[in-house]
Amino acid sequence: MSLSRTAGAALLALALASVAVPASATTDAAAARYVALGDSYASGTGAGSYSDVACTRSRNAYPALWAAANAPASFTFAACGGATIPDMLGDQVDELGDDTTLVSLSIGGNDSGFASTMLSCQYSTQSACERALRTAGEYVVNELPGELDSLYATVRARAPHAEVVVIGYPHLYKEGGLCLGGLSSAKRTAVNQGSDLLNETIAGRAVAAGFAFADGRPAFAGHEICTSDAWISSTNVHPTAEGHASAYLPAFSAAVSAG
Fold first, then answer.
1. Which DSSP string corresponds to 168-207?
2. Which of 43, 58, 195, 238 is catalytic?
3. Catalytic (active site) residue 244
4. Is this structure's pTM higher than 0.90?
5. Is 171 among the catalytic positions?
6. Which of 27, 77, 146, 243 would bridge 231 by S-S if both were Cys, CB 3.0 to 4.6 A apart?
7. pLDDT digits (tens, 9 = 90+) for 216-237
8. Considering 40, 58, 106, 195, which one is annotated as catalytic?
9. Which CATH number fits domain 29-258: 3.40.50.1110, 3.40.50.720, 3.40.50.300, 3.40.50.150?
């Protein structure tokens, strides 16, 4: 499941430098009608202070923090822990409308089997971890692009005037060295390579849809699991409250400002 880092870097540069956002979609934060869509990385699973326990929607999650800081005209927090693309198409997109001016969106991890892959890597052998990552990688390469295209087209149709920011996933682990009580160095590298493939697929389809892409990897750099100041929980493998405030929120805010 390894990916050419040269090709990955080129695609990431395209995602960051060539985002096409209609001029009409530029967001005035105070006047924004903001809808936050996505999975557990958007809802704030693991960040505590939940306003909705069933969906693990946290007041510490970056969508809620952005809304609290900017006081938009309206804020709808539709992201839900465990969500997949079919879940989003089934109900979350119903929150979008002609008057929506800002959308944040994080999806694809659960569709590619994130939970089962992480279990394999945490509790099974190196070969079992790599097999799970290969299976996930095959889905990411062969099926996810078309599913994202369909989802992004639906989001644009439901919210034709909105600025849409797609949020990527962070690297989960520090690579190299020892990680007491954590994954082996080889497993950590393999998991991060899987994250690269997922992020670069998401970034490419976001750019093709004319959406902005906010990369979670540089935002969390130096604060992965196994670092001395981790912003990702080793227990549930999700960003902590500090991760949302210090990494995701600035990345999302910068993407909104750039739009």
1. -PPP-B--SS--TTS--HHHHHHHHHHHHHHHHHHHHHHH
2. 238
3. no
4. no
5. no
6. 243
7. 999 999 999 999 999 999 999 9
8. 40
9. 3.40.50.1110
